[in-house]
Protein: Membrane protein YphA (DoxX/SURF4 family)
Organism: Spirosoma utsteinense
Amino acid sequence: MDQLFVYPLRWNAAQKIAFRFFFVYFLLYVVPFDGWNGIIPWVGEAILHLPYPITVFPNGSGDTTFNYVQLLCFAGIAMVVTGIWLVVDRSRSNYNTLLYWLVVLLRYYLAFTMLTYGFAKVFKTQFPSPDLLRLLQPYGQSSPMGLAWTFMGYSGAYNWFTGLGEIVGGGLLLFRRTTALGSITLLVVLSNIVAINFCFDIPVKLFSSNLLLMTVFILAAEGKRLINVLLLNRPAPALDLTPFRTSRRWRTGRLVFKTVLLVVLFYQRSVDGFNSGKEWGEHAPKTPLYGIYQVETFALNSDTLAPMLTDSIRWRQVIVDGYKRYPHLTVRLMSDSLHQYVFKPDSIKSEAILYTYADTTTKYRITYVQPDTSSVIIRGVFGRDSIYARLKRQNLNQFLLINRGFHWINEYPMNR
């Protein structure tokens, strides 16, 4: 019979303390609880005495004051519970069963999370191609996060590469026999993600760091075997995959359940990714008038304005971007300031309604005609002012980022 590696029957004091802490911490982090929205602001005010109240709750940013205080609460509660646990359960020799189930919980949490992000990259909905406004933005005016999004969004192949790494790593975690391989895969993938988040100031630092911490914890459960194989060049016994006895019916039922779960999971992620891609991904239908337009003629209240760079009223460019269901229009003035509007076109009536994101009640109505395929004439009323603008569509292939493409042979580097 092959030798099997089993968890030690007696843990030392440091192992038991560390396990108690991380058991509580990970449960608090993974298990959802709506009450934090009331607890965290109170902690910030009454205990931490923050100089400002916590009014921003979890949103697109995962590095808000709320998130940092919440993480501090998780660690504090885990320390208190660890101390109490140490006193009331001092004589226990090990926590092998609890460790097994905690690792199962973290495996599935990590797997579902990485599969979600992986499919978002495969279907290119997390990092879409640079939009039209990004193409016009001066390089130095982009934020570090915007630079990272442009870098990732430019290449569909790199999205596939990184997305498949997350899918493969997450998929391997769903099986006990491939847990170590999946964890090693995700250790590499998540280390890169954490580095990008920190180096490009992407506000998912806390979340990605905790995912990496979970991965390290799962690997630590098999640390002795991995050290023997990877560092000491020693043989390692196979891991005992059944730390407690189960009936054949239980094993069969678990196999059927897991198979159904995986099929449903991969089907759901694939369908969601495909539908999301059709709605706002690479192949989503574009909004009417999609393009970048130079303003050749602009008149305000029938007064034609010359294109002077010091003019803070005259339009310089009009950018119609977004997808059919989420279109927006941006006006760049001669002074380079931008005015962004939600764009609701009616292609049958050749008219559109504009309003700002900050004020959805004040709406502006414009009409447009297309004398030819490259020109658009806009008329409308903005407040008390009537405007007339003749626009000329700009050829998008003039942008190097779009027309450069891929080259097997480069006699000289093109680094611009």
Notes: DSSP finds twelve helices and eleven strands in the chain. The chain has two domains: 4-280, 291-398. The radius of gyration is 28 Å. Residues 291-398 form a domain with the Lipocalin fold (CATH 2.40.128.20).
